[in-house]
Amino acid sequence: MSKPDELLVDVATLVESEHSNQMSLTVVAGGAVITGRLAPEAVWRQRVSEVLADSPRLSDFSAVFTATTREVGPPTHLHFHVARILQGTVGIPETGGMYRVAINDVSAWTMGDFSYSDD
Q: How far is CA 3 from the centre of its chain?
């Protein structure tokens, strides 16, 4: 198992402590490029729970995301919202999604997010 990047853990810790959702980040994990904004885990879980609760077929899963609490210690995952997986010149989904990425799986990262336009 690889050792997590200490600087990336520090960024995630600051996002958690400040409860900010404005930190833009782009990571490479498992060969995929994911770009978007980080959110504190509690905020991310609440938003995923709300989306699931609004779905007639998936509402039973909603409670899973609000029932558990974060473990004490440094963050082990990044929680993206308004995020896209980049594939060529396309970001999937176009409107942004909710992604949870293990910090140990991040092989490269940079501050900021990437946006594409049809110019």
A: 19
What pTM does this model have?
0.87
Cβ atoms of residues 102 and 77 within 8 Å: yes
Query: What is the helix, strand, coil percentage profile of the chain, to 5?
Result: 30, 35, 30
CA distance 94 to 98: 12
- pLDDT tens per residue across span 32-82: 999 999 999 999 999 999 999 999 999 999 999 987 666 778 999 999 988
DSSP-derived secondary structure for 21-38:
---EEEEEETTEEEEEEE
SS3 of residue 92 by DSSP: strand
Beta-sheet pairing, 90-102 with 77-87: antiparallel
